[in-house]
Amino acid sequence: MADDQIRYAASGGSQRTDVRLAIEPGGTGRLFVGSSMSLPTAGPLDTLGTFEGALDSGVLSRLRSLLAGGAPVVPAEPAIPGSVVRHLATAGWEVMIPGYAPAPLDEVESLLQQAIATLLEHPAEAVRLWIDRDGAFVLTAAGDRPVELGSLATLRGTYVVRDADGAVLAATPVVAPSDTSGRLLGPGESLRLPAAEAASGGLSGGVELDAVIGGRSCRLLLQAAPITR
Predict the structure, then answer these.
(1) Rounded to a whole number, what is the distance in angstroms from the first to the last CA of the chain?
(2) Where do the H-state alpha helices sit in the chain?
């Protein structure tokens, strides 16, 4: 790792957080997000995979200034079972951040969240989950690179129907294609996954599936933005 490269990762927890961020010396950010629940401050995420782009120079300048003093001192707290584990590394040192980050790590994490929010607008090798007007889930390659989906035999999903007050009326499984072999989706290409039973009302839900993103096998947990039909 270059001396001024910054790496940040968060994983685990009840919502299965999965985020990895690398900030290169020239200011380019490279991000992987594997779960729609990974970034609660950014709101629901319907697009997962890798994201790349240039980061704000002011954010980077402040971030590097905060990290220039060497490894910060953090409390020696045991990890809470089921909690999200966060790691920060740069300039030859690495620290694990506890549940509540002390200064200056609290500001560092705030700046890293800003960088992540910026990168989410620049999908590279990513897939988006959405619900079409016929009430089917649709997976679309959302970046500028193809996305390799693994065996669809391992795909799992739930389709949720709600009434006007938000109460759940039904929860049915997503139907995987009869051909469960993997797929290579080119940019803009889609794979449609109908629900077991079509319905009207407020529709939402999510899927879990295997993919190869950035040359690494991973499990993506996607949540679709709700619609009404």
Answers:
(1) 50
(2) 57-67, 105-119
- Contact at 8 Å (CB) between 208 and 151? no
pLDDT tens profile 56-92: 999 999 999 999 877 887 777 766 777 788 999 998 8
Residue ending a domain, choose from 84, 119, 154: 119
CB 153 within 8 A of CB 176: yes
Task: Encode pLDDT of 162-197 as tens digits.
Answer: 988 889 998 888 888 889 999 999 999 999 998 766
**pTM for this predicted structure:** 0.90
Residue 52 lies in a domain: yes
- Residue in 127, 143, 188 with CA at minimum distance from that of residue 52: 143
**DSSP letter, residue 229:** -
Range list of β-strands (E), the chain = 6-12, 17-23, 28-33, 47-54, 84-90, 93-97, 123-131, 137-141, 147-149, 156-162, 168-173, 183-185, 190-193, 202-213, 216-228
Name beta bridge partners: 217: 212
Triad 62, 65, 67: Cα angle to 5°:
115
Q: What is the extent of the structural domain holding 88?
A: 6-119
Single out the residue in 119, 150, 169 at which a domain terminates. 119
Residues 151-166: b if buried by 16+ CB within 10 A, e if exposed: ebeebebebbbbeeee
Residue corresponding to tokens 């009326």:
169
Query: Rounded CA gap, 173 and 206, in Å?
Result: 10
Per the structure, the count of domains in the chain is 2
